[in-house]
Hints:
The structure is a single chain. The protein is of the alpha/beta class and 441 residues long. Helices cover 34% and strands 15% of the residues. It has 15 helices and 13 strands. The protein has helices at residues 75-79, 115-121, 140-153, 166-178, 192-199, 212-225, 237-242, 245-254, 271-285, 306-312, 338-348, 357-371, 377-391, 414-417, 430-436; strands at 37-42, 48-49, 64-68, 110-113, 125-130, 158-162, 181-187, 205-208, 229-231, 262-266, 295-301, 351-355, 400-405. The protein has a six-stranded mixed sheet, sandwiched between helices. Strands 8-7-6-9 form a four-stranded parallel sheet, sandwiched between helices. Strands 2-1-3 form a three-stranded antiparallel sheet. A hairpin with a 5-residue loop joins strand 1 and strand 2 (48-49). Helix 3 (140-153) crosses helix 4 and helix 12 (357-371) crosses helix 13 (377-391). 57% of the residues are buried. The structure holds pyridoxal-5'-phosphate and zinc ion. Zinc ion is lined by residues 42, 44-45, 47, 57, 59-60, 62.
Amino acid sequence: MSALVTEGPAGSSAPHAAPATPEADDPAFRSGAFGHARALSCRECGHEVELGPHYACPECFGPLEVAYDFPTVTREQISSGPPNIWRYQPLLPVPADIAESPNTEPGFTRLLRADNLARELGLESLWVKDDSTNPTNSFKDRVVACALSAARELGAKVFACPSTGNLANAVAAAGARAGIKTVVFIPSDLERPKQVNSAVYTENLVAVNGTYDDVNRLASEIAGEEDGWAFVNVNVRPFYAEGSKTLGFEIAEQLGWRLPDQIVIPVASGSQLTKVDKAFRELIELGLVEEKPYRVYGAQATGCSPVSIAYKTQAPTIRPVKPDTIAKSLAIGNPADGIYVLDICRRSGGAVEDVTDHQIREGILLLARTEGIFTETAGGTTVACLKKLAESGVLDPTKETVVINTGMGLKTLDAVGDTVGPAATIDPSYAAFTATGIAES
Ligand SMILES: Cc1ncc(COP(=O)(O)O)c(C=O)c1O
Ligand SMILES: [Zn+2]
């Protein structure tokens, strides 16, 4: 099928670019290809277009998102499903037989009580949603699994993405498992472990001399030129983005079918934060959780904080920045969903915060030493923002709080590699060990 032809200008705000135009002779999709999804709906004007490789509204160029006709869904039905994101199949744009096609089966990661970290920060009730244990060690496996389903149903021949690192890992691995050609594009200055974590799965890792925003522009251009390419976060972005809802679904289910009072989420493009909020709203709409107010907080690195700057200056729009931070996975200077993040955080009574590279390193060590979880720089950013929000009183210490760890520390070893290491290097003798004083400390 040649539906995957994408027109339109490049840019990190790709959803605002011109829409894809399916050709007239396209065969129809198989029945139920997108589950209970009804259409793609414009987030700006509400105009609906048919399901397909479209990402921008033909009326106003606003971004499209998936709209559904949900069936009745019960807690029991979900609980008896597989221990991965497909337990939420009726709430995702994927077919009923999704579990039968090869995929990495991400999700249903641990929700851990974080009493040590809570005590350290003066919070009464804190949970860590630990997404570092996904198949390629970040939450991106969730979104990629949904994008892969869409790519398959649309007949794509190439599975591709521009990435700040983790997405490339997830696309390369999922494509290998599905037996589809993958091409992944990254900024050339990315951490070595993230490069290797893609290159082991694909021969087509392309390192681009430029920022992520340059890589994203290039990807949009290629999507417009090449036939049959599914760029997960460009021309199948509406389907891809829905995968992040599963983080919200799981948190609610693992809390015993209720919503937390406060949640802290890292922000790069902003897609994840907006979809966790969408998940909470859908659970309320479906009667799967009780309606209640919840506050959403966004976390950014000061070296790339366009959304936090807009929040703090009460600006109506996001002004793009040039990233300069160790949190490379969050280094998107022109975030496509930034404006929606602002809206959600303001509307819910939350906030957007940012922290320095030094605080990010401290955040990584804080989570590791209080809860035994080694996070990457994105998680260091989130934990450090949680700390800052708790210290400033912006976060209510008496309310139940969830913080999302989206990635794995082994991918960004350099961030703390110079700070930690052996306490002593000794000869293999008891005398040498006792001389270190470690036994008494
Ligand atoms: C580990 C990690 N956390 C968070 C994010 C932010 O995701 P989003 O672009 O949906 O805001 C990314 C994005 O690449 C990431 O790699
Ligand atoms: Zn519109």
